Each structure stands twice: as structure tokens, then as C-alpha cells.
Amino acid sequence: MDASYLVDSIAEIQRVIGVAVPLLIAIALLVFIWGLVVFIAQSDNEQARTAGKQKMIWGIIALFVIVSVWGLVNLLQQLTGVDEGTVSAPQSTGF
Whole domain around residue 73: which residue ranges? Predict the structure, then answer.
């Protein structure tokens, strides 16, 4: 197995995560807004209001989890001195 394959794989994973995180945040925000719209539009229907509340709660939970994990990853990158996009091939040890 070539080291460049590993480096390319890690870079690809970073790229996918870089695209997925904002997409997941957008989806969670849409779920929250959808729940809010249902809650307001169906204010006379108790079951619909409850369903809207549930959507809003799950949207907030998803946003919290996604942003928290993203923040922890960024904090770990700062603490360890690893910057995003700095994946490089390992140095040859001469063996």
C-alpha cells in the first residue's frame, strides 16, 4: 500500500466532511423551521402543535450536536496545531 493512497484517502474524507457538515446544519435548521411553521399554522389542533414541537426540539438537538462536534474538532485542531488541509505524506525514515 502506497502512502500517497492513504494521504489521498484522508484528504477525500476531509473534503466530504467539509461539504457534509454545512449540509447537515441546513437540514437541521429546515427541520426546526418546518416544526415552527406547523406549530404556528396548526395552532388550533393540539396534535399538530405537539408534532410541531417535536420537530422543533429535534431540530434544536441536531443543531446542538452538529455544532458541538464541529466545535470540538476545531478546538482539537487548534490545541494540537493541526490545520485543516495539511495532510501530507509521511517522511521517509531511510529503512
Answer: 3-80
